[in-house]
Amino acid sequence: MQIELNGKPHAIADGADLVQLIAALELTGKAVAVAVNRQVVPSQLWAGRVLVEADRVDVVRAIGGG
């Protein structure tokens, strides 16, 4: 199925949740924030947040610097 990931089309498996998406993006264990359809989803709820066709997902990675 197709979702929108950071403004671009992205194919994922039917029934995939946010944990699976983050793993597929190789971001597991990294400092990231996720919003689905403009609503921030706390990381403790990622496993229960199943994605559906046309969901708009924004993933932001925190990068330190100075």
Automatic annotation (TrEMBL):
InterPro entries: Beta-grasp_dom_sf (IPR012675), Mopterin_synth/thiamin_S_b (IPR016155), Thi_S (IPR010035), ThiS/MoaD-like (IPR003749). CDD domains: Ubl_ThiS (cd00565). Pfam families: ThiS. Transmembrane segments: none annotated. NCBIfam families: thiS. This is Sulfur carrier protein ThiS. It comes from Herbaspirillum rhizosphaerae. The lineage of its organism: Bacteria, Pseudomonadati, Pseudomonadota, Betaproteobacteria, Burkholderiales. The gene is thiS.
